[in-house]
Amino acid sequence: MTELSSEKLINEIIEILADAEAPIISTGAGMSSESGVRTFRGEDGYWREHRAEDLASPEGLRKDPELVWEWYGERLKAYEDIQPHAGYHALVQLQDQLGKLPVVTQNVDGLLQKAGLIDVVELHGNLKTASCINRCGAPSVPINEELFEHLPPHCSCGSILRPDVVLFGEQLPEQALRRALNLAETCDLILVIGTSMLVYPASSLPLIVLRRGLPVIEINPEETPLTSLAGVISIHGAAGQILPLLVEGVSLR
Ligand code: OAD
Question: How far is the CA of 39 from the centre of ligand 1 (A)?
């Protein structure tokens, strides 16, 4: 971690970011917290109140599908009215300046796309569709209000439906993972925003970039396992405040 005053550190990051030709972004739940989305492990985090195994694992879903679907329903409702904050708009501005800006995300809130980010790699899936927990082969169905009328929702084969998000212990969507790893192997900088860096394989992306000797920048108000690694430039602050400063600085260079 680089120890500099915030202003010096911001200027240093602006210089590095402005020199990058193919930067990529990696986001976690903290990227959306200023838009009103709850994180998993932060102060208001879901995992402080519930066990991840109960709500976000295939076993939890089979044990109490109604509870799990109620939780996803609450989250979907919370996502309905949220709006991207200034940090999101800054990323879109950077995308416009560079012509492209791939973003790998663990989030399923859809805020990156809502803000106007074009190239979003969803590592943990999304909450648009649901499919048969027993993979009977029936096509996936859209997650809409109708689905919540009788919980838990059922597939045409009679099994319960599951949201097409990645649950704990499951493989990530192959194509998204391959693309994310390829981006980490080919980018010339990674900006890691709002993730506790505790969930693999998303947490491995900055390590790949670090191993290649290229800049790894972290924005997070808290320390993470990434923060203290040699070569990582970590700025402690909120995405909605730091990102506009960085992108404004880059555009002035
Ligand atoms: P976490 O809840 O684990 O971590 C959120 C991080 O965001 C923390 O390190 C906070 O310090 C940071 N943070 C909070 N507010 C912030 C702000 N305004 N700006 C920047 N950072 C901020 O969320 P993730 O790392 O995304 O997976 O969690 C990873 C995965 O674990 C999730 O995708 C989910 C969860 O269980 C599944 O459900 C499979």
Answer: 5
Percent of the chain residues past pLDDT 70, beyond the cut: 98
**Quick one: 213 and 183 in the same domain?**
yes
**243 and 188 in one domain?**
yes
Q: Terminal CA-to-CA distance of the chain, rounded, Å? A: 25
Q: Which residues line ligand 1 (CB under 6 A)?
A: 28-30, 33-34, 39-42, 45, 52, 56, 106, 124, 166, 168, 193-196, 198-199, 219-222, 224, 238-239
- Domain extent, residue 116, equals 1-37+83-124+171-253
pLDDT at 154 over 90: yes
Q: Is 121 helix (H, G, I), strand (E, B) or coil?
A: strand
Say how far apart CA 76 and CA 144 lie, in whole Å: 9
Helix (H, G, I), strand (E, B) or coil at 203: helix
